[in-house]
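ugh ok fine here u go
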Amino acid sequence: MISDVLDRAFVLREATRIHEALKGSGTAGRRAGRTRPEVVEPEITEALRSSIVKEMGRGGQQGAGSRRGAAPAAATREEPYISSDPIISIVQSALEFYLQDPQTVDTIELDTTNSAVTDWRATKKRSGRRVFEQFSVTDIGWVSSVVAMGIRKFNDKRPFNMSPAQDLKIADNCRVVMVGDWGSGIPRAQKVAMEMRKHVVDARNQGLECHVVHLGDVYYSGFEFEYRDRFLPYWPVLPTEADAVRSWCLNGNHDMYSGGYAYFDYLLTDPRFARQEQSSFFRLSNNHWQILGLDTAWDDDGLKDPQGAWIRDKVANNPQKTMIMSHHQLFSARENSPDVGKVMRSKLKDVLDAKKIDSAIWGHEHRCVTYAPHDNIKYGRLIGHGGVPVWADTGPLAAPGVFQSTKSMGGGVKERFAYMGFAVLDFAEANIEASYYDEDGGLELKEVLN
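structure:
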């Protein structure tokens, strides 16, 4: 990620210029022989305009409210800006794509002055100047056409794979390494992956079956280049281990912002994820537990059919305890809204009322939180702190929250970044030893789920 594209004011300023270019329609021409559409549909231009107005109206931190975690009241700087608006996220992807294009000569450089966030910045940008000022109108037209393409994909998303991956039998004693919201590619996310890698290697050295799960979200909007450059090179399972260590990836809302095409047809075709069979929901099971990986992002914060019926069938016809994994949360100690998890809770009401789901693990909120039993879920766990820099939060945790990682680094006295991290679940017959690690490999919490 490039620091400029994590700056809210910069992104919204350039989004406004892109909107003006799209209104002109004729600015999108050619670059190195690549033809770009010359006419942009009015609804695309209007969608961008509407998102810009909405984001400018939000002001403050990220425009994402409590989901990402607001800065302390006395903070003077904004958090790194990763918008929760699909269209603005597409703009961020397009700006990064442009700045990293080999034909955009010498536009990024290494910059380690803000290592808690990222280590690249745009070199053509100077204080008060715009990225495109030193380039021809073709450049703004070129990046605008990428934005238009992304919006088209968002509006016409990739068809859902209605069939789950074939059920996979796993060992009664095995290891599952889990991380959420990791796909930023920034140095600290890479560091998280290196620490995860140690637990993968340790499992292999012990002869222990190992699986590695991503709970979803590759930033900014799930373009193919973002999986290629930010996800796959740093994934803690090597390509040569594709058959020995299984990899799994849930679908997140950011994965769907460019329609989900790269998630289904690029990431899930990588040999390491082959066992998922290009499906966004799947089941792993042993004699004691079944793990149901769900897609709550194809329908944003929903549960696309036939998953509800599939879950009910798996719970009714299998004797194991049930753990569900999703990108979105069933409930939250950080976001006080009745809409949180509303669709999922509604579609799973019978199962939840019957106390058939023992554990639920999710991401989406960029924190690590454990919960007291709530809504008939014995173990609710948030593991969403894998790769997005957010301010540390040392305030009291609202019920039903029990534990929240509060370790922090960098910034000023009051502007501290929360540590990133991941979880390791060691299945031992009916028990699971769950260990929560930070990005330095430090153990923050250990517990037993049974």
